[in-house]
Amino acid sequence: MASSSTRLGFCVLLILAMFATEFNVVLSQRPVACLQFCYDNLGYMTCPSTGNRRLQPACNCCLASLRYGRGCRIYDTRGSLLCVDT
Predict the structure, then answer these.
(1) Cystine design at 85: which of 1, 6, 17, 61 (Cβ 3.0–4.6 Å)?
(2) How confident is the model at residue 84 (pLDDT cuts 50, 70, 90)?
(3) What is the pTM assigned to this prediction?
């Protein structure tokens, strides 16, 4: 049978592990503030997270990264690069 100090130590360890996990999740979620504007003549965008498929473009690269992650590129209707989210 486990002693009361072993049980207490296990409970403390469990609480610390839960706290460390929650703290790590909070740190990994960085707040992002995107400017609210749209480029003119939006054509399409590509993002690494989708295998660089041609997608319906977001208004700007910051907004695209919120949905698809970093590395999105937005092109105009002529195929010229408008922005890259790095």
Answers:
(1) 61
(2) very high
(3) 0.63
Distance CA 53, CA 40 (A): 21
Rounded CA gap, 52 and 41, in Å?
20
- CA pair distance 64, 53, nearest whole angstrom: 14
Token pair in block for residue 11: 């409970």
- C-alpha torsion sign, points 36, 83, 64, 54: positive
The answer for residues whose C-beta is within 8 angstroms of residue 14's C-beta and 6 or more apart is: none
- Span 26-67, pLDDT tens digits: 445 567 788 889 999 999 999 999 999 999 999 999 999 999
Distance from C-alpha of 86 to C-alpha of 73, rounded to nearest angstrom:
9
Looking at residue 57, what DSSP letter applies? P
Calculate the CA 75 to chain-centre distance. Answer: 21
